[in-house]
Amino acid sequence: MALGFFALALFLFLTLDTDIAPSSTASASAASSEGVEVHVTYGTVLKLMHEKTKFRLHSHDVPYGSGSGQQSVTGFPNVDDANSYWIVRPEPGTSAKQGDAIKSGTIIRLQHMRTRKWLHSHLHASPISGNLEVSCFGGESESDTGDYWRLLIEGSGKTWKQDQKIRLQHVDTGGYLHSHDKKYSRIAGGQQEVCGVREKRADNVWLAAEGVYLPVTESK
């Protein structure tokens, strides 16, 4: 686990903005073990854990065999998998910058670290349940409103922190990022469906889990 966090920190040092020193990043496990409150900021690389099933939001370079045919998104049962890391990005055209804290109600994007595509949704039907399909789409220079998700923090918290219950509501469709214990049996055997549903349910609550968290940038 420690080796995995070291590799992830090295990736951040090589690929993220140079004004963030490598010593200022913190692994979630190290910070939480010290009782430190960890904010989720733009540029943070994390795994999202489905609260009810404990599966991680996951993607890989395997297209759906139905619906849009775009890159599939699933829930993955194992913690140690590099395809479950996502980079938290702002909505384009805003003044948000790396290291900014993220308030409830803010529109964000999640970029899949391995394939560089964006967490996406639309009106195509999901493969198992027939709800809204959630996929990965686009790339570094290709992103549209189908990649926009509104952060909704459960409870009294105003800014996003690790281990805080959240919902992500898709802006275009109104669907909440959702998962359940319905599993794929073939290509993604043992992985569970991730989809969008328009109702608030216990199955659309997520938490920021493992990752490398960038500190909040102090205002100048």
Automatic annotation (TrEMBL):
Signal peptide, first to last residue: 1-17
Domain MIR: 37-91, 99-154, 157-211
Biological processes annotated in GO: defense response to bacterium; defense response to fungus; pattern recognition receptor signaling pathway
Assigned keywords, A-Z: Glycosyltransferase, Repeat, Signal, Transferase
EC number: 2.4.1.109
One Pfam family per UniProt: MIR
GO cellular component terms, semicolon-separated: endoplasmic reticulum
MF GO annotations: glycosyltransferase activity
Family matches, as CDD domains: beta-trefoil_MIR_AtSDF2-like (cd23294)
Protein name: Stromal cell-derived factor 2-like protein
Lineage: Eukaryota, Viridiplantae, Streptophyta, Embryophyta, Tracheophyta
